[in-house]
Write a structure and sequence with these properties.
CATH architecture of the largest domain: Alpha-Beta Barrel
Radius of gyration: 22 Å
Structural class: alpha/beta
Distance between the termini: 33 Å
Low-confidence stretches: 3-23, 384-403
Strand content: 5-15%
Mean pLDDT: 86
Helix content: 40-55%
CATH class of the largest domain: Alpha Beta
Order of helices and strands: EHHHHEEEHEHEHEHHEEHHHHEHEHEEHH
Number of helices: 17
CATH topology of the largest domain: TIM Barrel
């Protein structure tokens, strides 16, 4: 346990979030029942061995594979080691051909994909990939691509936004004396999910107002941990919510892991010069640490992109760019808007199998996205996209930092 201190505890009932929309779980249950019926009638097997499926490439997306139960904190970001082993075993037992990202895209373009092809990608480069995921993949000799964001590799401390959210969750449900922590006032209320989200926003806003860099933010997190009775030394010892360091990246690259671009500070500036600087730093560090050629495949941080950025990526020699939109990749897919299958803790196993088989690719929504992507790819090849000006919406980032 990380917790050390005491606090003013409240009941679990008080800490619960308001109940979710009751329709959603009903629809999810109905969908899973339908998919289970299709699997029982061998529809999965028939589709997975069809020529239709052979011309489609599922790119699986993961973030972290938990070593210390982080999936209980954020099941959209982490899966348990047990679930990940189950997914990998499904790939192996089902005879799926796991390819590296460059090989998979190259063979898709050449129409030479093996039957039941699939690609594994991991976003960000969490230490848990080195600690948990890679030993599992290595056991089965499966290739993987890591889309690596590099700032927190060099500055190897916990990612500020994520560790702040994790510590606030760890300290639930309670009210703590704030003792002037980041101008919180007299109390730090962590009784509900809404209260914890509000506290996280306050921490991030205060750090931005104070213009804190990496070390300043880390000091702020240490103060938070001390205030809520969590041993920050244990956080560092376990390397919770750290990224891999350069030596670990070099080791994995030598072992066959493919590292690709994800920006230096996990952000997508709408200014062309700033975005180029992000990619230049990211590309240079990856090439230096891996000892290989500069990477030329890319993944949008948090899946956020703007049409004006696509011609810049083309100009800079980016061969592909992955999104967080669900779907299967075809030869007609716009190469700078690749869909992926985002695996997470709440994705039922039959749903996971349906994506592998290609059944979910027949979903009308997926077919529409495929058509839209093909239309965009045609425009990019024939007309070229022009800069459409600044995004009227606020730029979104998951864990920005300043040098």
């Amino acid at each position: 346990m990380l917790r050390l201190g005491a606090a003013k505890w409240v009941s679990t009932a008080q800490a619960n979030l308001p109940s979710a929309d009751p329709v959603t779980p009903i629809l999810r249950t109905a969908k899973q029942a339908c998919l289970q019926g299709m699997r029982a009638t061998t529809a999965f097997n028939l589709v997975s061995r069809s020529s239709w499926r052979r011309s489609r490439l599922p790119i699986l997306c993961y973030h972290g594979v938990a070593a210390y139960g982080q999936e209980r904190w954020d099941g959209s970001l982490f899966v348990s080691a047990e679930l990940f082993v189950k997914r990998v075993q499904t790939l192996v037992d089902g005879g799926f051909q796991v390819l590296s990202l460059p090989e998979g895209l190259s063979r898709l373009a050449a129409n030479t994909l093996p039957e039941r092809s699939v690609v594994l990608t991991f976003d960000d480069g969490f230490y848990s990939f080195y600690q948990v995921a890679w030993p599992i993949l290595k056991r089965y000799n499966l290739p993987a691509t890591v889309y690596l964001t590099t700032y927190y590799c060099s500055y190897n401390r916990p990612v500020f936004d994520l560790i702040s959210a994790y510590l606030l969750w760890q300290a639930r449900p309670a009210i703590y004396p704030a003792h002037n922590l980041a101008n919180f006032g007299s109390e730090l209320d962590l009784r509900t999910g809404t209260a914890r989200a509000r506290a996280l926003r306050h921490l991030k806003s205060w750090a931005a107002e104070q213009n804190l860099g990496g070390s300043g933010k880390d000091e702020l997190v240490q103060q938070l941990a001390e205030q809520i009775g969590i041993d920050y030394r244990e956080v560092l010892r376990r390397r919770l919510l750290h990224l891999m360091n350069p030596d670990e990246i070099a080791e994995l690259a030598a072992g066959g892991v493919n590292f690709e671009l994800h920006t230096h500070r996990h952000r997508m500036p709408l200014d062309q010069d700033r975005l180029w600087e992000e990619l230049k730093q990211n590309r240079g560090r990856i090439a230096e640490w891996t000892g290989g050629s500069p990477p030329d495949h890319f993944c949008f941080p948090s899946g956020v992109w703007h049409p004006s950025q696509l011609p810049w990526l083309q100009q800079w020699g980016i061969r592909s760019a992955a999104t967080c939109q669900p779907g299967l990749v075809t030869r007609n897919t716009a190469p700078l808007l690749l869909p992926r299958v985002i695996d997470h803790s709440e994705l039922g196993h039959v749903e996971f199998e349906s994506w592998l088989a290609g059944v979910r690719g027949l979903d009308p929504r997926c077919l529409y996205r495929m058509w839209s992507s093909a239309r965009l790819a045609f425009r990019m090849n024939t007309e070229g996209l022009q800069d459409r000006g600044p995004d009227p919406f606020e730029e979104k980032t998951r864990f920005p930092d300043r040098p």
